Amino acid sequence: MKKILITGGAGFIGYHLSKRLAAEGHDLAIADNFFRSRHDNDFAALLANPNVKLIEADLTKPESWDTIGAGYDEVYHLVGINGTKYFYEIPHEVLRIGVSTTMNALEWFRSTNNKPDAKILYTSSNEAYASGFDLGTVPIPTPEQVPLVIADTYNPRWSYGGQKLIGELFFIHYAKAYNFRMSIVRPHNFSGPRAGYEHVIPEIVGRIAAQTEPFPIFGADDTRSFCYIDDAAEAIQRVMESKTTDGGTYHIGTSDETVIEDLIHTIFDLMQWHPKQIETKNSPAGSVKRRLADVSKIKKDTGWEAKTTLREGLQKTIDWYRKNPKPKK
Ligand SMILES: NC(=O)c1ccc[n+]([C@@H]2O[C@H](COP(=O)([O-])OP(=O)(O)OC[C@H]3O[C@@H](n4cnc5c(N)ncnc54)[C@H](O)[C@@H]3O)[C@@H](O)[C@H]2O)c1
After folding, report:
1. By CB neighbour count within 10 A (0-12 exposed, 13-18 middle, 19+ buried), where does 145 fall?
2. Exposure pattern of 182-220 as b/e (b: 16+ CB <10 Å)?
Protein backbone atom coordinates (compact mmCIF):
# COMPACT_ATOMS: atom_id res chain seq x y z
CA MET A 1 0.00 0.00 0.00
CA LYS A 2 1.38 3.39 -1.03
CA LYS A 3 0.69 6.89 0.27
CA ILE A 4 -0.47 8.93 -2.74
CA LEU A 5 -1.43 12.58 -3.32
CA ILE A 6 -3.52 13.71 -6.31
CA THR A 7 -3.69 17.48 -6.77
CA GLY A 8 -6.82 18.52 -8.70
CA GLY A 9 -8.13 15.08 -7.77
CA ALA A 10 -11.80 16.09 -7.81
CA GLY A 11 -11.57 16.94 -11.53
CA PHE A 12 -12.16 14.74 -14.56
CA ILE A 13 -8.85 12.86 -14.80
CA GLY A 14 -8.19 13.07 -11.04
CA TYR A 15 -11.50 11.43 -10.15
CA HIS A 16 -11.02 8.44 -12.49
CA LEU A 17 -7.40 8.00 -11.46
CA SER A 18 -8.39 8.22 -7.77
CA LYS A 19 -11.10 5.60 -8.25
CA ARG A 20 -8.56 3.26 -9.80
CA LEU A 21 -5.93 3.80 -7.09
CA ALA A 22 -8.49 3.63 -4.25
CA ALA A 23 -9.70 0.26 -5.57
CA GLU A 24 -6.11 -1.01 -5.23
CA GLY A 25 -6.24 -0.08 -1.52
CA HIS A 26 -3.73 2.78 -1.50
CA ASP A 27 -3.84 5.54 1.08
CA LEU A 28 -5.09 8.43 -1.03
CA ALA A 29 -5.25 12.19 -0.43
CA ILE A 30 -7.15 14.36 -2.92
CA ALA A 31 -6.38 18.10 -2.83
CA ASP A 32 -8.79 20.42 -4.67
CA ASN A 33 -10.64 23.74 -4.25
CA PHE A 34 -13.57 22.85 -6.58
CA PHE A 35 -12.78 25.71 -8.97
CA ARG A 36 -14.15 23.58 -11.78
CA SER A 37 -15.18 20.22 -10.35
CA ARG A 38 -18.32 19.46 -8.38
CA HIS A 39 -18.89 17.57 -5.16
CA ASP A 40 -21.41 15.28 -6.90
CA ASN A 41 -22.70 11.77 -6.10
CA ASP A 42 -19.80 10.06 -7.90
CA PHE A 43 -17.29 12.03 -5.88
CA ALA A 44 -19.18 11.38 -2.62
CA ALA A 45 -19.06 7.62 -3.39
CA LEU A 46 -15.30 7.85 -3.91
CA LEU A 47 -14.87 9.65 -0.58
CA ALA A 48 -16.90 6.92 1.15
CA ASN A 49 -13.77 4.73 0.81
CA PRO A 50 -12.04 4.75 4.23
CA ASN A 51 -8.64 4.99 2.48
CA VAL A 52 -9.55 8.22 0.59
CA LYS A 53 -9.46 11.68 2.16
CA LEU A 54 -10.24 15.13 0.76
CA ILE A 55 -8.10 18.16 1.56
CA GLU A 56 -9.94 21.30 0.45
CA ALA A 57 -7.22 23.82 -0.33
CA ASP A 58 -6.32 26.57 -2.78
CA LEU A 59 -2.97 25.24 -3.98
CA THR A 60 -1.86 28.65 -5.33
CA LYS A 61 -1.20 29.60 -1.67
CA PRO A 62 2.15 28.22 -0.43
CA GLU A 63 0.80 27.88 3.14
CA SER A 64 -2.02 25.57 1.93
CA TRP A 65 0.63 22.91 1.30
CA ASP A 66 1.27 22.69 5.06
CA THR A 67 -2.13 20.98 5.39
CA ILE A 68 -1.09 18.27 2.93
CA GLY A 69 1.62 16.77 5.12
CA ALA A 70 4.61 14.74 3.93
CA GLY A 71 5.89 11.24 3.34
CA TYR A 72 4.10 10.54 0.05
CA ASP A 73 5.36 7.76 -2.25
CA GLU A 74 3.67 9.19 -5.34
CA VAL A 75 2.33 12.65 -6.21
CA TYR A 76 0.15 13.11 -9.28
CA HIS A 77 0.19 16.88 -9.99
CA LEU A 78 -3.00 17.38 -12.00
CA VAL A 79 -4.24 20.75 -10.79
CA GLY A 80 -4.78 23.39 -13.47
CA ILE A 81 -7.44 25.44 -15.24
CA ASN A 82 -8.70 23.28 -18.07
CA GLY A 83 -11.53 24.25 -20.46
CA THR A 84 -10.98 26.37 -23.60
CA LYS A 85 -13.42 29.11 -22.59
CA TYR A 86 -11.23 29.99 -19.60
CA PHE A 87 -8.17 30.43 -21.86
CA TYR A 88 -10.02 33.28 -23.59
CA GLU A 89 -11.96 34.71 -20.62
CA ILE A 90 -9.32 34.64 -17.84
CA PRO A 91 -5.91 33.99 -19.47
CA HIS A 92 -4.13 35.82 -16.61
CA GLU A 93 -5.68 33.40 -14.08
CA VAL A 94 -4.90 30.36 -16.23
CA LEU A 95 -1.26 31.49 -16.11
CA ARG A 96 -1.19 32.48 -12.43
CA ILE A 97 -2.89 29.33 -11.17
CA GLY A 98 -0.97 26.98 -13.49
CA VAL A 99 2.47 28.39 -12.73
CA SER A 100 2.01 29.07 -8.99
CA THR A 101 0.52 25.66 -8.17
CA THR A 102 3.37 23.97 -10.04
CA MET A 103 6.07 26.05 -8.32
CA ASN A 104 4.43 25.39 -4.94
CA ALA A 105 4.15 21.64 -5.66
CA LEU A 106 7.84 21.38 -6.54
CA GLU A 107 9.04 23.50 -3.60
CA TRP A 108 6.86 21.44 -1.24
CA PHE A 109 8.02 18.13 -2.76
CA ARG A 110 11.74 18.90 -2.68
CA SER A 111 11.61 20.24 0.87
CA THR A 112 9.33 17.62 2.51
CA ASN A 113 10.05 14.48 0.49
CA ASN A 114 11.83 12.02 2.78
CA LYS A 115 11.68 8.87 0.63
CA PRO A 116 14.45 8.34 -1.95
CA ASP A 117 12.09 6.47 -4.31
CA ALA A 118 9.23 9.01 -4.12
CA LYS A 119 8.09 10.29 -7.52
CA ILE A 120 6.06 13.26 -8.79
CA LEU A 121 4.24 13.33 -12.15
CA TYR A 122 3.17 16.41 -14.13
CA THR A 123 0.20 16.57 -16.48
CA SER A 124 1.22 18.89 -19.30
CA SER A 125 -0.85 19.06 -22.49
CA ASN A 126 -0.75 18.82 -26.26
CA GLU A 127 -1.46 22.58 -26.12
CA ALA A 128 2.23 23.04 -25.15
CA TYR A 129 3.12 22.48 -28.81
CA ALA A 130 -0.21 23.22 -30.49
CA SER A 131 0.61 26.75 -31.66
CA GLY A 132 3.43 25.19 -33.69
CA PHE A 133 0.68 24.10 -36.12
CA ASP A 134 0.52 27.78 -37.23
CA LEU A 135 4.27 27.69 -37.88
CA GLY A 136 4.28 24.32 -39.64
CA THR A 137 6.56 22.74 -37.01
CA VAL A 138 4.19 19.94 -35.92
CA PRO A 139 4.26 16.66 -37.85
CA ILE A 140 1.30 14.25 -37.76
CA PRO A 141 1.50 11.94 -35.85
CA THR A 142 3.29 14.17 -33.34
CA PRO A 143 6.26 12.83 -31.35
CA GLU A 144 7.26 14.09 -27.90
CA GLN A 145 10.41 15.95 -29.05
CA VAL A 146 8.49 18.41 -31.26
CA PRO A 147 9.45 22.04 -30.35
CA LEU A 148 7.24 23.67 -27.72
CA VAL A 149 6.37 27.11 -29.05
CA ILE A 150 4.01 30.02 -28.47
CA ALA A 151 3.27 31.42 -31.93
CA ASP A 152 1.59 34.61 -30.65
CA THR A 153 1.95 35.83 -27.05
CA TYR A 154 -0.97 38.27 -27.59
CA ASN A 155 -3.43 35.47 -28.40
CA PRO A 156 -5.06 34.58 -25.03
CA ARG A 157 -5.54 30.98 -26.13
CA TRP A 158 -1.84 30.29 -25.64
CA SER A 159 -1.98 31.27 -21.95
CA TYR A 160 -2.76 27.61 -21.27
CA GLY A 161 -0.08 26.15 -23.57
CA GLY A 162 2.39 28.71 -22.23
CA GLN A 163 1.96 27.74 -18.59
CA LYS A 164 2.26 24.05 -19.52
CA LEU A 165 5.53 24.79 -21.35
CA ILE A 166 6.78 26.61 -18.22
CA GLY A 167 5.55 23.71 -16.03
CA GLU A 168 7.54 21.19 -18.06
CA LEU A 169 10.69 23.32 -17.69
CA PHE A 170 10.15 23.60 -13.93
CA PHE A 171 9.71 19.84 -13.53
CA ILE A 172 12.77 18.95 -15.61
CA HIS A 173 15.13 21.40 -13.91
CA TYR A 174 13.87 20.99 -10.31
CA ALA A 175 14.20 17.20 -10.60
CA LYS A 176 17.79 17.58 -11.87
CA ALA A 177 18.76 20.20 -9.29
CA TYR A 178 17.26 18.35 -6.29
CA ASN A 179 17.75 14.83 -7.63
CA PHE A 180 14.23 13.41 -7.38
CA ARG A 181 12.18 11.15 -9.65
CA MET A 182 9.60 12.67 -12.00
CA SER A 183 7.80 12.09 -15.29
CA ILE A 184 5.74 14.34 -17.55
CA VAL A 185 2.63 13.20 -19.46
CA ARG A 186 0.79 15.06 -22.22
CA PRO A 187 -2.87 13.96 -22.39
CA HIS A 188 -4.48 14.11 -25.86
CA ASN A 189 -8.28 14.51 -25.84
CA PHE A 190 -9.36 12.27 -23.00
CA SER A 191 -13.09 11.60 -22.96
CA GLY A 192 -15.58 9.86 -20.71
CA PRO A 193 -18.05 10.37 -17.88
CA ARG A 194 -17.76 13.41 -15.61
CA ALA A 195 -15.58 15.44 -18.04
CA GLY A 196 -17.63 18.59 -17.44
CA TYR A 197 -20.14 19.94 -19.93
CA GLU A 198 -17.94 22.11 -22.17
CA HIS A 199 -16.19 19.31 -24.05
CA VAL A 200 -17.14 18.32 -27.60
CA ILE A 201 -18.80 14.98 -26.72
CA PRO A 202 -21.02 16.19 -23.81
CA GLU A 203 -21.99 19.25 -25.88
CA ILE A 204 -23.14 17.05 -28.76
CA VAL A 205 -24.95 14.65 -26.42
CA GLY A 206 -26.73 17.66 -24.84
CA ARG A 207 -27.80 19.01 -28.25
CA ILE A 208 -29.06 15.59 -29.33
CA ALA A 209 -30.99 15.19 -26.07
CA ALA A 210 -32.58 18.60 -26.74
CA GLN A 211 -33.30 17.48 -30.38
CA THR A 212 -31.71 20.69 -31.71
CA GLU A 213 -32.85 21.59 -35.25
CA PRO A 214 -31.11 22.53 -37.45
CA PHE A 215 -28.16 20.68 -35.91
CA PRO A 216 -24.87 22.66 -36.05
CA ILE A 217 -21.56 20.85 -36.66
CA PHE A 218 -18.49 23.00 -36.00
CA GLY A 219 -15.27 22.09 -37.82
CA ALA A 220 -16.84 19.05 -39.51
CA ASP A 221 -13.64 17.99 -41.31
CA ASP A 222 -11.28 18.62 -38.35
CA THR A 223 -9.81 15.49 -36.77
CA ARG A 224 -9.06 14.45 -33.20
CA SER A 225 -8.06 11.19 -31.49
CA PHE A 226 -10.18 10.40 -28.45
CA CYS A 227 -8.77 8.33 -25.61
CA TYR A 228 -11.27 6.80 -23.18
CA ILE A 229 -10.65 7.88 -19.59
CA ASP A 230 -10.22 4.38 -18.10
CA ASP A 231 -7.41 3.68 -20.56
CA ALA A 232 -5.97 7.13 -19.91
CA ALA A 233 -5.95 6.66 -16.12
CA GLU A 234 -4.17 3.33 -16.57
CA ALA A 235 -1.57 5.01 -18.83
CA ILE A 236 -0.86 7.74 -16.27
CA GLN A 237 -0.47 5.13 -13.52
CA ARG A 238 1.91 3.06 -15.68
CA VAL A 239 4.12 6.09 -16.36
CA MET A 240 4.19 6.85 -12.63
CA GLU A 241 5.04 3.28 -11.62
CA SER A 242 7.77 2.63 -14.17
CA LYS A 243 11.44 3.40 -13.51
CA THR A 244 12.13 3.43 -17.27
CA THR A 245 9.94 6.53 -17.61
CA ASP A 246 11.90 8.53 -14.98
CA GLY A 247 12.89 11.95 -16.32
CA GLY A 248 10.90 11.41 -19.53
CA THR A 249 7.93 12.98 -21.32
CA TYR A 250 5.11 10.80 -22.66
CA HIS A 251 2.21 11.40 -25.02
CA ILE A 252 -0.99 9.62 -23.97
CA GLY A 253 -3.67 9.09 -26.60
CA THR A 254 -4.73 6.74 -29.35
CA SER A 255 -3.55 6.24 -32.93
CA ASP A 256 -7.13 6.46 -34.26
CA GLU A 257 -7.72 9.73 -36.06
CA THR A 258 -11.44 10.56 -36.03
CA VAL A 259 -13.11 13.10 -38.32
CA ILE A 260 -15.49 15.26 -36.24
CA GLU A 261 -18.40 14.72 -38.64
CA ASP A 262 -17.97 10.91 -38.38
CA LEU A 263 -17.81 11.18 -34.58
CA ILE A 264 -21.11 13.06 -34.54
CA HIS A 265 -22.81 10.57 -36.88
CA THR A 266 -21.69 7.72 -34.59
CA ILE A 267 -23.25 9.56 -31.64
CA PHE A 268 -26.49 10.04 -33.66
CA ASP A 269 -26.54 6.25 -34.27
CA LEU A 270 -25.82 5.37 -30.63
CA MET A 271 -28.48 7.79 -29.35
CA GLN A 272 -30.91 6.68 -32.07
CA TRP A 273 -31.81 10.20 -33.16
CA HIS A 274 -30.88 11.92 -36.41
CA PRO A 275 -31.61 15.59 -37.15
CA LYS A 276 -33.55 16.48 -40.28
CA GLN A 277 -31.12 19.26 -41.12
CA ILE A 278 -27.40 19.68 -40.42
CA GLU A 279 -25.61 23.05 -40.58
CA THR A 280 -21.85 22.78 -40.98
CA LYS A 281 -19.97 25.74 -39.49
CA ASN A 282 -16.31 26.79 -39.25
CA SER A 283 -14.29 25.59 -36.28
CA PRO A 284 -13.77 28.15 -33.49
CA ALA A 285 -10.87 30.57 -34.12
CA GLY A 286 -7.51 29.11 -33.07
CA SER A 287 -8.78 25.55 -33.35
CA VAL A 288 -6.25 23.12 -34.81
CA LYS A 289 -7.23 21.20 -37.97
CA ARG A 290 -5.68 17.82 -37.15
CA ARG A 291 -4.40 16.35 -33.93
CA LEU A 292 -2.83 12.95 -33.61
CA ALA A 293 -0.23 11.93 -31.05
CA ASP A 294 2.59 9.53 -31.75
CA VAL A 295 2.10 7.10 -28.86
CA SER A 296 4.89 4.65 -29.70
CA LYS A 297 7.14 5.84 -26.83
CA ILE A 298 4.71 4.99 -24.01
CA LYS A 299 4.04 1.60 -25.62
CA LYS A 300 7.77 0.85 -25.89
CA ASP A 301 8.57 1.93 -22.30
CA THR A 302 5.48 0.71 -20.39
CA GLY A 303 3.66 -1.69 -22.74
CA TRP A 304 0.51 0.47 -22.49
CA GLU A 305 -1.85 1.00 -25.36
CA ALA A 306 -5.51 2.05 -25.41
CA LYS A 307 -7.97 -0.88 -25.33
CA THR A 308 -11.40 0.78 -25.49
CA THR A 309 -12.81 1.35 -28.99
CA LEU A 310 -14.29 4.74 -29.86
CA ARG A 311 -17.82 3.21 -29.99
CA GLU A 312 -17.46 1.50 -26.58
CA GLY A 313 -16.14 4.67 -24.98
CA LEU A 314 -18.88 6.79 -26.56
CA GLN A 315 -21.59 4.41 -25.35
CA LYS A 316 -20.35 4.60 -21.73
CA THR A 317 -20.01 8.39 -21.96
CA ILE A 318 -23.51 8.82 -23.44
CA ASP A 319 -25.03 6.57 -20.74
CA TRP A 320 -23.45 8.71 -18.01
CA TYR A 321 -24.47 12.05 -19.52
CA ARG A 322 -28.03 10.83 -20.05
CA LYS A 323 -28.22 10.04 -16.33
CA ASN A 324 -26.42 13.27 -15.40
CA PRO A 325 -27.67 16.06 -17.70
CA LYS A 326 -26.19 19.56 -17.40
CA PRO A 327 -27.48 21.06 -14.13
CA LYS A 328 -29.74 24.08 -14.60
CA LYS A 329 -28.23 27.21 -13.01
N1 LIG B 1 -8.78 16.27 -19.98
C2 LIG B 1 -7.86 16.30 -20.95
O3 LIG B 1 -8.07 15.73 -22.04
C4 LIG B 1 -6.56 17.02 -20.74
C5 LIG B 1 -5.78 17.29 -21.86
C6 LIG B 1 -4.55 17.92 -21.68
C7 LIG B 1 -4.11 18.27 -20.41
N8 LIG B 1 -4.89 18.02 -19.32
C9 LIG B 1 -4.39 18.45 -17.99
O10 LIG B 1 -4.60 17.42 -17.02
C11 LIG B 1 -4.91 17.98 -15.75
C12 LIG B 1 -6.27 17.46 -15.28
O13 LIG B 1 -7.24 17.79 -16.28
P14 LIG B 1 -8.78 17.57 -16.08
O15 LIG B 1 -9.36 17.33 -17.43
O16 LIG B 1 -9.01 16.58 -15.02
O17 LIG B 1 -9.21 19.03 -15.60
P18 LIG B 1 -10.28 19.44 -14.48
O19 LIG B 1 -10.53 20.91 -14.65
O20 LIG B 1 -11.43 18.52 -14.50
O21 LIG B 1 -9.45 19.19 -13.12
C22 LIG B 1 -8.56 20.13 -12.57
C23 LIG B 1 -8.89 20.27 -11.11
O24 LIG B 1 -8.04 21.29 -10.52
C25 LIG B 1 -8.82 21.97 -9.54
N26 LIG B 1 -8.24 23.29 -9.25
C27 LIG B 1 -8.16 24.38 -10.05
N28 LIG B 1 -7.55 25.40 -9.42
C29 LIG B 1 -7.21 24.94 -8.18
C30 LIG B 1 -6.54 25.52 -7.06
N31 LIG B 1 -6.09 26.78 -7.07
N32 LIG B 1 -6.35 24.75 -5.96
C33 LIG B 1 -6.81 23.48 -5.91
N34 LIG B 1 -7.45 22.87 -6.93
C35 LIG B 1 -7.66 23.60 -8.06
C36 LIG B 1 -10.19 22.09 -10.20
O37 LIG B 1 -11.21 22.36 -9.27
C38 LIG B 1 -10.33 20.72 -10.86
O39 LIG B 1 -10.98 19.80 -10.00
C40 LIG B 1 -4.92 19.51 -15.94
O41 LIG B 1 -3.68 20.04 -15.53
C42 LIG B 1 -5.12 19.67 -17.43
O43 LIG B 1 -4.56 20.88 -17.89
C44 LIG B 1 -6.11 17.42 -19.46
Report:
1. exposed
2. bbbbbbbbbbbbbbeeebbbbebbebbeeeeeebebbbb
Cα(78) to ligand 1 centroid in Å equals: 6
8 lines ligand 1 (CB under 6 A): yes
Helix (H) or strand (E) holding 111: helix 91-112
Burial annotation 8-37 (CB, 10 A radius, 16+ → b, else e)? bbbbbbbbbbbbbbbeeebbbbbbbbebbb
CATH assignment at residue 274 = 3.40.50.720
Phi, psi of 256 (to 5 degrees): -90, 115
Query: Could you tell me if residue 65 is inside a domain?
Result: yes
CB 30 within 8 A of CB 6: yes
Predicted confidence (pLDDT) per residue in 30-55, tens digit: 999 999 888 999 999 999 999 999 99
Asked if residue 185 belongs to a domain, the reply is: yes
pTM over 0.70: yes
In-domain check, residue 329: no
pLDDT at 199: 84
Residue 225 belongs to domain spanning = 3-323
Distance 1 CA to ligand 1 centre (A): 26
Q: Is the pLDDT of residue 131 over 70?
A: yes
305 lies in some domain = yes
Instruction: Give dist(CA 171, CA 242) in Å, integer.
Output: 17
Top pLDDT among 131 and 317 is at 317
- Look at the chain and count its residues: 329
**C-alpha 274 to ligand 1 mean position (Å):** 33
Domain count, the chain: 1
Ligand 1 pocket member 192 (CB < 6 A): no
The reply to whether ligand 1 has any atom less than 6 angstroms from the CB of 187 is yes
Distance (Å) from CA 209 to ligand 1 centroid = 27
